């Protein structure tokens, strides 16, 4: 044997061995190929913004409601501020699939079909979202879920021009959510359309730890209610998972209740401020068509929205809490810091924050902007500040180092 032949033979042996071990690794992955891919849909680089039908309408939805809401998002100026996704939640489909196994829009409420609705919404510069479930039926039990039909439904959604999928967790087969949510993620990946994938697993199996490889957002809690107790307890729960969020992958403490009527304006302002700081999806949950001027002023505060949409994409956290008086803070781009002083107690109280505890030098002067008052508190403030905050109200500031 010549030396060249020997080297060639050895090389073939090494190559065969490598191929064998790779295939061993593959077959030892019990979850299959659909968990082994890169989520590369490019969407949700900042938290998604828009509207969703559930909090206000539950199952009482139809195409007219969706179309007029899209119109209202445009006419109120909310769309121009970033509220782009018009999301249909549960109850949009017939109870059974057609003879080919396809989901069918409910003919009594969506007679023109979902494709026509997507065209309508797209023509206004908006995007259309839809809802399904990683189980046999959705939570309302009024329509089928996508379990076992992942690829077929993903193709249907793509053909209709869907831009966002909220994928719920009711009535499944007991298998791991990691499997069920990965399957739909892979199906969406295969259809090729960039569809924002919102995992609605309610935080049960700690999705912050795994959902970022499959989806663009994941619910961290059960359903929100239009009460102060619900909003504050959800904020605390969502806060635990802050370090897992980032561009393209967000903790989702559920949709907004602002404007639904059961909380005070101060409570709604606090709800909106904390959601913005936590980089939560900002999905309006009220009837935009009849929203009051005050509701629109809250949802339309551009400076608070900018906190949420900041390109740095770091979730703000609770950094101090005593007797219901809290400081929440987070870094923003250009070395700025956002601070929320939140009063969860029943009486008006002073809350103080020091620059050092929010990561700024106590000695360097800072520009302090109050985002609800829409005014500058100071153009050169050192050490920290104290503000009096009404019960269930908050202050939200941006601190900009002035050097
Ligand atoms: C679950 C979800 C809600 C909503 C309903 C619809 O409860 O968490 O956000 O989608 O289902 O039935």
Automatic annotation (TrEMBL):
Reaction(s) catalysed by this chain, per the record, are:
Hydrolysis of terminal, non-reducing alpha-D-galactose residues in alpha-D-galactosides, including galactose oligosaccharides, galactomannans and galactolipids
SUPFAM superfamilies hit by this protein: (Trans)glycosidases (SSF51445), Glycosyl hydrolase domain (SSF51011)
**One Pfam family for this entry, by name?**
Melibiase_2
Tell me which residues make up the Alpha galactosidase C-terminal domain: 324-399
Question: Quick one: signal sequence residues?
Answer: 1-23
Q: Quote the EC number.
A: 3.2.1.22
Keywords per UniProt? Disulfide bond, Glycosidase, Hydrolase, Signal
Q: Does the keyword Ribosomal protein apply?
A: no
Spell out the PROSITE patterns in the cross-references. ALPHA_GALACTOSIDASE
Of which family is this protein a member?
Belongs to the glycosyl hydrolase 27 family.
Q: What is this protein called?
A: Alpha-galactosidase
């Amino acid at each position: 044997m010549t030396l060249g032949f020997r080297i060639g033979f050895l090389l073939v042996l090494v190559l065969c061995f490598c191929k064998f071990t790779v295939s061993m690794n593959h077959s030892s992955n019990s979850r299959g190929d659909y968990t082994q891919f890169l989520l590369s849909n490019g969407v949700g680089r900042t938290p998604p913004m828009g509207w969703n039908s559930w909090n206000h309408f539950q199952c009482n939805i139809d195409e007219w409601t969706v179309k007029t809401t899209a119109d209202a998002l445009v006419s109120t100026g909310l769309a121009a501020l970033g509220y782009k996704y018009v999301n249909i939640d549960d109850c949009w489909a017939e109870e059974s699939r057609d003879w080919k196994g396809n989901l069918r829009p409910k003919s009594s409420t969506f007679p023109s079909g979902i494709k026509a609705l997507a065209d309508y919404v797209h023509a206004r510069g908006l995007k259309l979202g839809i809802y399904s479930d990683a189980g046999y039926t959705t939570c309302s039990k009024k329509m089928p879920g996508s379990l076992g039909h992942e690829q077929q439904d993903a193709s249907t959604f793509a053909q209709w021009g869907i831009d966002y999928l909220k994928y719920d967790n009711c009535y499944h087969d007991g298998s791991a959510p990691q499997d069920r949510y990965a399957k739909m993620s892979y199906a969406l990946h295969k259809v090729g359309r960039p569809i924002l994938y919102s995992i609605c697993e309610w935080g049960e199996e700690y999705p912050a730890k795994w959902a970022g490889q499959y989806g663009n957002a994941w619910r961290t809690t059960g359903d929100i209610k239009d009460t102060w107790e619900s909003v504050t307890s959800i904020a605390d729960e969502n806060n635990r998972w802050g370090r897992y969020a980032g561009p393209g992958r967000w903790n989702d403490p559920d949709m907004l209740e602002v404007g639904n009527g059961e909380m005070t304006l101060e409570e709604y302002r606090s709800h909106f401020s904390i959601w913005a700081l936590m980089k939560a999806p900002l999905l309006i949950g009220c009837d935009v068509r009849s929203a009051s001027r005050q509701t629109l002023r809250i949802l339309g505060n551009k400076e608070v929205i900018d906190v949420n949409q900041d390109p740095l994409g770091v979730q703000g956290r609770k950094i101090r809490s005593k007797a219901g008086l809290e400081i929440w803070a987070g870094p923003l781009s250009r070395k700025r810091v956002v601070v929320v002083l939140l009063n969860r107690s029943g009486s008006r109280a002073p809350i103080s924050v020091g620059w050092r505890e929010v990561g700024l030098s106590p000695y360097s002067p800072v520009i302090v902007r109050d985002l609800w008052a829409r005014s500058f508190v100071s153009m050169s403030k050192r050490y920290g500040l104290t503000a009096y905050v009404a019960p269930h109200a908050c202050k939200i500031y941006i601190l900009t180092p002035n050097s």
